[in-house]
What we know:
Layout: H1 4-10, H2 13-21, H3 26-29, E1 30-35, E2 40-44, E3 49-55, E4 58-64, E5 67-74, E6 79-81, E7 92-97, E8 101-107, H4 108-118, H5 123-153
Antiparallel strand pairs: 1-8, 2-7, 3-6, 3-8, 4-5, 4-7
Amino acid sequence: MYDKSYMKQFSSYTNLLALMQRYSDFRESTVDMQMAASEVFVENTIRTNCYLLKSGYVQITDISKYGATYLMIGGPGKIISLPIYNAELPQLIQIKALTNVVITQVDFEFLKKVLQLEDPHNYVTINYLSDLRKMLYHEVTQNTVAVRGRIIKF
């Protein structure tokens, strides 16, 4: 079993930044993007970037041929997108700033190299997937409660 607090600390924004800064191509591989509240950024998932939320809050929405689907709200320190499997990624995501935000855009190949060398136990990936699992559980629970309420009212 993994220690939850250690994984969270290891996967934190400040630690990830420190790990990446060890490499000479850090400056070429990362860019801080500032977004004002209610500004929208659309990202194609045949993407080559990963996004880390430095400050502020964002809403992430999947924009597909079937319409827009809410995915999650991210807060400071969250990894907004970490491509794990190409086939499972939404094709197009919309990142909407709920407050003034700073997002660090990281070249995925650079991050992949850093994680392969600095995170051999995959703490960052496990923490990211664990956070997604919790978020999905909460969404399903809320939707189930809403459905039960609608059924009972009939």
